[in-house]
Fold each of these.
Amino acid sequence: MPLSIDVVSDVVCPWCFIGKRRLESALELYRQRRPGAPAPEIAFHPFELNPDLPREGIARADYVAKKFGARGYSAHDRLVNAGAQLGIPFAFDRIKRYHPVEAAERLMALVG
């Protein structure tokens, strides 16, 4: 019986991206240790972390202030370091606005 994995994530969530990379590493280790095992069945399910974002988006500075409060941009340090360890070069400073991800999720459902 193949291993079954359900992944619930937001398409723009950086922690979800880190989790995906870690899952890929774990699956590679699984294949190495169990070469005859059937390939795992992986199902991805959408989840919108910020469903209340306005359709036109929100300025990054406003989003960070609302989401992280006094911690502000320092909350990203741990995230940037975790990403760097996995070869993910997060560049949050290049983000000008945050937008809802509903359209991206619909597109992924069509091609997935």
Amino acid sequence: MNVIVVGCGRLGSTLAVQLSTSGHQVTVVDASAVSFNNLPADFHGRVIEGDVLTRDVLHRAEIDRAEALAAVTNSDALNAVVGRMAKSVYRVPNVVIRNYNPRWHRFQETFGLEIVSTAGWGMHRFEDLLSDNPLHLIFTDDKSKTAIYQIIASKKLQGHLLGELLPEPLSRNVTITRKSKVLQPAEDLTLKSGDVVYLTIPFDQVPALHQRLSALQEN
């Protein structure tokens, strides 16, 4: 799938890496070249510096070929305008925009787009940490029958190897970050508390993932 990610902050860069790791063709657009430093050196997608509202930048991003677009900048107004343009002008099938400030949420709703609120994510992150449940469903794709899970390593997982978590041998569908830095995944990588693992797996492997996590936390 050809995906455009608008905004290369912490959220945009993490999303771009995970999508690329999952096998999608990713183009990241940001007005500041410095923002691309958030991407790891081995990122395989394209990066384009420029104002996403200009026709030249959109054409360089090949928006006419895009199958999905995520507008995840810190500007709610920009996200809404870019999303609306992608949907109505360029007919991008799947468009999702970020809501950064809850006060702008109602305004963004008028554009008729899918909205993801980072304020809501923050609330759920507190709940996740307090519940001591390391496994969180991020996204499901019924067409490919796969799901993206986030695993936040707790103290109970510290010291275990990354390979012990995986229901199958390490594949290209794994991304791990430590203190916002993307690490090179390896089966013998020792987990530390606070590490964040993003894993794309088929639906039929989810039960095995739950079993492995339960077993590791009991030890």
Amino acid sequence: MTKKALRVAAGLLFIAIITVSLDVIPVNPTTAAFAYLIAILLIAAQWGLVESVTSSGAAAFCLNYFFLPPVRTLNIADAHNWVALSAFLVTSLVASQLSELARRRNAQLHQRQTEMERLYALSRGIMLIDSERPAGVQIATEIVRIYDVTSATIYDQTDDQIYAAGIAREMAPLDALRELSVRGNLVLDPATNTCMAPITLAGRSIGAVSVVGRIGGGLVSESALHAITNLIAVGLEKARTQELVSRAEAARQSEQFKSTLLDAVAHEFKTPLTSIKAATSTILTSSALTAEQQHELLTIIDQESERLTGLVTEAIHLARVESGRLHLSRSLRDVRELVQEALKQSSALVSGRPIQTQFAPSLPKVSVDAELFVVMVKQLLDNAMKYSPTGSPIRITAENSTDSVHIRIHNQGLGLTEGERTMVFERFYRTPGARQNAPGTGMGLAIVQDIVRAHGGYIDVESQPGVGTEFSIRLPLAKGERN
């Protein structure tokens, strides 16, 4: 038995119950008619026109048989009762029709309200999509979540790709969506619970969407489907615009970075190149140089060449970081050995400067890129040498916690103000005093920070004017090395 037939039977049962109740309590025909009319209005409001019309016929029969004299017969003795019965039947039918119209209108209003709420939720979800993930997948996921459908498939004509969410076997094939985007017609198939529509923007087709599943007990309305496709079009276009803006910004920053890098390196190259040029010119043009003088000039050439090599290395490392080509070649290494290697490679730089090292006795190995770790320590040593008084010691300590190794490099320099401390890791940033007193490009600490981050670590700086500066690095331990 269908649902409608069950409702008709329930309506007839309701009329029968009212008839029995009214028959037990003696009432006049007018009271009975009003009781039946109220029952018919309730049935029409709750179920619909067919059920209320059927109940109206049953109520008219019962009113005639049980309440209009002579009772218990279908005869009507008084002509006025014929008029009353006819009026009752017409009133009940008209009331049923009006109640049905009101019920339908209320259902339509509820459906529109629900559609508006869902469209608002979808628009909000589209506006908040993550630019790091494909927009089509996120929009399809939002449609499945908000409309509680089986699947949603979006075809983007621009890159000829489909993006889907939901049950895989219900997703529309690529060829069908391609064809739909070309034809531009709307498809509503109640048999398969499928809604398909082209996605248009400014009058041109940019794709198609397929939604499988019943929304609120039925297929989504055409107006709602058009609104959904418009939101999808806006979302896809927004994602494309964001991507173009990001590319343009990346290109602009890349050009700015290259320009700044070239300016900084070119400026720093002038001093060692000038010294090298002066020393070589003196050697080549002067024939009266003693062996000691020649050795001094060659030493200058060697030192300045080493400085040039360091500048080129800095630029190469920073360019690798900036281009995203900083790939780690990790291995378990001893921190003591890596720090000693960095000191060895910086021997010319730290010559005559006391270096104090202190390592925890149970210091575990760390999973790092050994070459980049040495570069990191060398950069911090170079920074300490530049910004601390000649002859003052530099202290390097390493200790471990339950999940990390902490490396600290302390110098007794003038220290940093709070504003300088927050800016010290910025590319090409140099403190006002450093620009006048120490050579450099402002790249070293930026390189250190990027190396630490690439290892999943963290770097911080503690400094006070007149006290000194300490850089603290935390590198996570490999799981097998944790306590």
Amino acid sequence: MKTNILFKILNIRYLIFIWLLFSFNVNSQTLNDYLSIATKNNPQVKAAYTEFEAAMQKSPQVSSLPDPSLTMSAFGRMVETRVGSQEARFSLMQMFPWFGTLTAKENAANLIAEATFQKYIDKKNEVSLELKKMYAELYELNQMIQLEEDNLQILDSYRELALSKFSNGKGAMVDVVRIDIKRNESATNIQLLKDQNQPLKFAFNSLLNRELSETIQIPNSLFFSKNKSHGNIDSLFASNPKLLLLDKKIASYEAQVVIAKKEGYPMIGLGIDYSIISKRDIPDFEMNGQDAIMPMLTVTLPIFRKKYNASKKEAELMVAATNYEKQAVKNNIQASYSMADYNLQKAIKLKKLYKNQLESTQQAIKLLIAAYSNSGTAFEEILRMNQDLLMLETATVTANKNEFTAQAQIDYLLSKDE
């Protein structure tokens, strides 16, 4: 019987150890599905894309000519002219901005739309990063519950072994009591972990914009491609949407400088004036009743330069301000990347440490159980080592999660998809 109990304990530990070694290398197919759902359904992502679509409507507005003006005049009392009475008058006028003004406005509007698109890309990446982090949290919680449940089974096996030794007169009843204390602690931990599942589940489903109670396929493993990039620091974040957005804004403000200059030039108006003339009661009168047509040219006189100079200065200051903002964002991205890389390397090193410690602790427990089976002593040391082993197993799970989230952060900063 003792041999069967010992084999059962060691077998459970062996299976846990193998699971910890290989669970991190199994490809999970569900994460990409959740990311796809979030990209399509998340209201923040949809709002950002709709804002981009709205920005696209600005270009046709600013690149169109001003509406022509039509003036119609009717005279209550006829105005006499040499060739007849003037009955009505029509004037049509079309104003034209200075050459290249509309093109410059269209270019500025398109650049703002491109900046808005980068904002949408960044929001989509942010939601994906948040989803990955929450996915890793669910993974960690699920594995913690599994480890505690496995630990509870092992404690049951220890209790069976302790009762056997006590019934044979080679053990103490206090060993059984110690196990019962640990079993109650483990059962409470399991319940607390399960209670934590609901708020995480609700938060995850809210990112997907679906029913909060929707079933989630809890991951048994985490998989990712290590995409750490190496290169010149100036080109490392070249595809980051935050920086691309600011580049587009800078280009747009530079276009505003051009617009301000061109708006300081005259506008030219071309038109036509048409007057209806009635015939005079004079026979054989040359040009009698002939309507009058008169081409017109209008030129605005932008002599009040203060507003044009201020508009140009405003655009130039916005270029400088956005350059400062870009440098600040770039500094923050570099700092975040450095911290994420540190967390990644830290998790990798800790996993190696935990793997070695798990093997040593497994061996120590095996020896302690064998000694207890023979002499009935050092049972308290078995429980202590079992607790150490549980801590190492949970630490390994946390390191897996930390490695995954650190790589997800790096992918976000480098704007790389899985």
